Amino acid sequence: MPRNFVITGGAGFIGSNYVARLLQRGENVTIYDNLSRGGAKTNLRWLRETYGERSFRLVEGDVRDSALLTSVINDADVVVHLAAQVAVTTSVIAPREDFEINALGTFNVLEAARASGRRPAVIYASTNKVYGGMENVGVVRDASRYRYRDLPAGISEEQPLDFHSPYGCSKGAGDQYVRDYQRIYGLPTVVMRQSCIYGPRQFGVEDQGWVAWFIIAAITGKPITIYGDGKQVRDVLFVEDLLDAYDAALANLDKAAGQIYNVGGGPSNTLAVWAEFGPKLESLLGKKIDVGWGDWRPGDQPVYISDITKIRRELGWEPRVGVDEGIRRLFDWVAANRTLFA
Fold first, then answer.
1. Which of 26, 128, 161, 216 stands 20 to 30 A from 167 (CA)?
2. For the chain, what percentages of helix, strand and coil (3-state, to nearest 5) are there?
């Protein structure tokens, strides 16, 4: 029997990809989105053209509107909470708005789920930024990249929380509220502390979605600025693999409820921001890319790699799309849709 899914931020990058997957499976989907993000209306148009005008329900709303949100979630079986203010830089400029969207908005989602009386599953897209700068973790700089001195598997869920930046604070507050609503109210909630997610339908900009942004900028001739030395390392995860993690949590909710999982590419899917990504992108583009250089940005981690041991052990999940394949898929999608980025 089809389930009722509510996807907050469902017109965004991750959301639209998940909506497409759910529609293919025959689920009932409500997209709850204020359509403020670049690309949201484009993604909606794609969903309608691909799956039909009436294949899903759209509610144009903001997560700060608790009354509307409560009415929409009232009959939900599953809530996937993706709506957020997503940029550290924006959070520094407008911390109150960041708090109201990320912390209060997440609280509103949880209260709406609790008020429904249906105990819907709630999946929350958290972030590795809840770990802060991790100054206590030893880092070594090699010729082309940084690496952890003593953590070959990466950062586990046992790493102490250290909310750095208003964005880290607001997402971290949501992270802990989501976890506690399982303990206190019995809601089957799952926190996904996500690393760098990339893939088609991502309208990346300079301060968010860096993999997509570099590809978009390279193809369309926009200037690229590298902050720091370009040897910063991130684990990267293709969007379809992330959606597999959501599905694995829902399929194993008896194990996943109340749990927090680091979900990223892990040690096998890492990339130095420009020292390694630059040559790959130049090879795909077929020419040299000129870039500008800027100072390190506050709180920028020289290396972040998710330890995905827990989610592999408990949910049987691991990434399937490698870095080179994933980058090529995203490059091909941007190249085929370059008019969207003019």
1. 216
2. 45, 20, 35
Looking at residue 291, what DSSP letter applies?
Answer: -
Predicted pLDDT of residue 215 = 97
Q: Which residues, in sequence order, are CB contacts of 337 under 8 Å at separation 6+? A: none
Q: Hey, what are 243's tokens?
A: 């959606």
Residues in the chain: 342
CA distances from 121 to 58, 87, 255 (A): 20, 27, 12
**Residue 153: per-residue pLDDT:** 98
Q: Which CATH class is domain 4-341?
A: alpha beta
Q: Name the 3-class secondary structure at 89.
A: helix
CA 219/CA 285 separation, integer angstroms: 7
Res 206: pLDDT: 82
Q: Tell me the C-alpha to C-alpha distance, in Å, between residue 149 and each of 20, 137, 138, 140.
A: 41, 8, 5, 6
CA atoms within 13 A on the CB side of 226: 18
Q: How far, in whole angstroms, is CA 79 from its chain's centroid? A: 16
Q: Are 120 and 253 in contact (CB under 8 A)?
A: no
Cβ atoms of 171 and 85 closer than 8 Å: no
Options 124, 167, 177, 181, the catalytic residue: 167
| Average pLDDT by stretches of 10, the chain with 342 residues | 97 98 98 94 97 96 98 98 92 96 98 98 96 93 95 97 93 98 98 97 89 96 95 98 98 98 98 97 96 87 96 98 98 96 82
- Give the Cα separation of 213 and 198 in Å (integer): 10
Structure tokens at 305: 């790699």
Q: Is 167 a catalytic residue?
A: yes
